[in-house]
Amino acid sequence: MAGSGGDMQWCFSQVKGAIDDDVAEADIISTVEFNHTGELLATGDKGGRVVIFQQEIENKNQPQFRSEYNVYSTFQSHEPEFDYLKSLEIEEKINKIRWLPQKNAAQFLLSTNDKTIKLWKISERDKRPEGYNLKEEDGRYKDPNAISGLRVPVLIPMDLMVEASPRRVFANAHTYHINSISVNSDDETYLSADDLRINLWNLEITDRSFNIVDIKPANMEELTEVITAAEFHPLQCNTFVYSSSKGTIRLCDMRASALCDRHSKLFEEPEDPSNRSFFSEIISSISDVKFSHNGRYMMTRDYLSVKIWDLNMENRPVETYQVHEYLRSKLCSLYENDCIFDKFECCWNGNDSVVMTGSYNNFFRMFDRGQRRDMTLEASRENSKPMQVLKTRKVCAGGKRKKDEISVDSLDFNKKILHTAWHPQDNIIAVATTHNLYIFQDKVN
Amino acid sequence: MYANEMEDKVVSPEKAEEAKLKARYPNLGAKPGGSDLLRKRLQKGPKYFDSGDYNMAKAKMKNKQLPSAPTEKAEITGGHIPTPQDLPQRKTSIVASKLAG
């Protein structure tokens, strides 16, 4: 079931979350992430909670199987805190979740808010011991004089219980707000990035972290750019990239020096100075950077486009896809309502042939790199009959609007899809609207 | 000759939007990506006077989100010294996510 491009026909599979408008701010989904096998799907929200869904596959042997994701575990990862020194609130909102590759029966994930990263262990318990010699079943100790025999306690089956426990808390290493975490391929370390600094941690050690990038100027008046995202290379454990608010990406090699302030490569597309406007820098700010699975490319998302870069070519991207070019003539209002600062994420499919990102009006976009085709789909309750094939959408930029098209002025800018995830192997995608999680599946899966 | 005239009239949509913005906000600085915007970004969220101020604000928010929670115990007025049994139970702050519902 390769996640190839081909002729994808996306069908509705499931939707999670409140149906009506009875939603609180805490329910706003802030991150979505599949684990390395795709069996588990984690979401984080503004209220600091993590919900993990597990895939249950019906009829795996049949060519058209349906998979369903059901709640596996849910826990409160972060709580709101107050920074007494600065008199500022520390939001409990989960900014990112990253899974660790599975090494034993338990699953591990890292979740982070603005200031603190936590390592959570999610383990299953389906047996319990029975027949202790010294204790009754309810835990009370027996009268030792009443014990006449000796027996071996046995493990008896019980209803599956999934427990989440915090194993490590990595705190107090970030002055600014954490925007990214990334687990290294060495299975020992991970990085965390805030607006101005990137730190390297060992998963076992919580009281120490190494600063590997520091772009804080001596005089804050000279601040011109901030770090927006960072990620380790999927295969080379010495390499990582970080993107900036000015639209550049720096690739760093940790073998070169302890402090990677000098990049090994700088990826930047030259800009036509005559096209420069007030908005140029704002819309060039990169909101997400993701390596391809094969490690040869990386994808960046800025406000209006998705760019694919070949790691061997720094001076321009190899592919550029327009997500919603029709918004270029709406930048003034988008600046006024702050939408121009929305941070959209992007993701690759399993074999790096298709990329996906979100847009407004609960639309999301897919770009098939091989077939040079793009698709606009919508996550909405209207299209949520089981296995209903999604119709492609089209936005009319101006002029005569055709039937079934939607005009730019009718787009709902409060309905934004910032977070999407693609199953690592199959054509199953998770798309988060503000309060709901949609799961779609390719019909030909 | 005509081509040049056409070029002068065609303005990129971005520049047109910029002109609109400058018309609405004439005091807007020339450098949008400058340190003001970035510094605002570095310090997001409201600043509170102190932790008491913060806790009051949080309590107000919580009351707003649970509007019709009925009081189980009788109202305690000023003439009565409350005992621990009289005080309403502190509601748990952890509400389950609707995604898990």
From TrEMBL, chain A:
InterPro entries: PP2A_PR55, PP2A_PR55_CS, WD40/YVTN_repeat-like_dom_sf, WD40_repeat_dom_sf, WD40_rpt. The keyword Repeat applies. Coiled coil: none annotated. It comes from Gasterosteus aculeatus aculeatus. GO terms for molecular function: protein phosphatase regulator activity. GO terms for cellular component: protein phosphatase type 2A complex. It holds the Pfam family WD40. This is Serine/threonine-protein phosphatase 2A 55 kDa regulatory subunit B. The lineage of its organism: Eukaryota, Metazoa, Chordata, Craniata, Vertebrata.
From TrEMBL, chain B:
It comes from the Eukaryota. One of its GO terms (cellular component) is cytoplasm. Keywords: Cell cycle, Cell division, Cytoplasm, Mitosis, Phosphoprotein, Protein phosphatase inhibitor. Signal peptide: none annotated. InterPro entries: Endosulphine (IPR006760). Belongs to the endosulfine family. This is cAMP regulated phosphoprotein 19.
